[in-house]
Specification:
5 helices; two-stranded antiparallel ribbon; zinc ion binding; Znf_RING/FYVE/PHD; EC 2.3.2.31; zinc-finger; Znf_RING; alpha+beta; single chain; 39% helix; three-stranded antiparallel β-sheet
Length: 189
């Protein structure tokens, strides 16, 4: 047989024994080597889910790609297919820190922190972002709406908390001087 892609004459065992995909309506006229090359090329230039028969516009199913692709191409295809399936789960979250891993978030909206099982870094399930340290999700939403004003308000609140904590510490560890009323360290005994 002559391959319609490479135009080389090849033996019957060098061609698929049946159609390239169950959806094809034509006998196979592309050799196995060209089908494999076509899958590899499509995977590099198209979405993983758009790999087609080299002779027609029929999409290849997972098992078709497994049957005809070389090992490396199939591993890439399989990984992309798995990632797409996982991403469809509403509770699945990819690590936003770039480690390439992801997981199902088992917490509820009141527990938005996701701790990556691979890199041990925290992210926010609700915002799909790195964890917003020292801010609740509501505070982070307010920050996102008006970052300039929020930061000044947040900084003022933070300072007030620090000043209150300092005043409480001074109260616990000092007493006023009987003469000038300036705080002095309390005696420990």
């Amino acid at each position: 047989l002559d391959c319609v892609v490479c135009d080389e004459t090849k033996t019957f065992p060098e061609f698929p024994s049946s159609t390239v995909t169950k959806a094809c309506n034509h006998p196979p006229q592309t050799c196995l080597e060209c089908i494999s090359t076509s899958i590899s090329t499509d995977l590099k230039s198209k979405l993983w889910s758009e790999i087609k028969c080299p002779e027609c516009d029929r999409l290849l199913a997972y098992d078709d790609v497994e049957r005809y692709a070389d090992h490396k191409t199939f591993e890439t295809y399989s990984s992309l297919s798995l990632r797409a399936a996982l991403s469809e789960s509403p509770n699945f979250v990819w690590c936003v820190h770039g480690c390439g891993d992801g997981q199902i978030h088992e917490g509820d909206p009141d527990q938005p922190i996701v701790l990556c099982r691979s890199c041990d870094r925290r992210s926010c399930f609700q915002h799909t972002a790195k964890w917003h340290e020292d801010m609740t999700c509501d505070e982070y939403d307010a920050f996102l709406k008006d970052p300039e004003n929020y930061l000044s308000t947040w900084e003022r609140i933070r300072r007030q908390k620090e000043e209150k904590a300092t005043a409480e510490m001074v109260e616990k560890t000092t007493k006023p001087c009987p003469n000038c009323k300036v705080p002095i360290e309390k005696n420990n005994g």
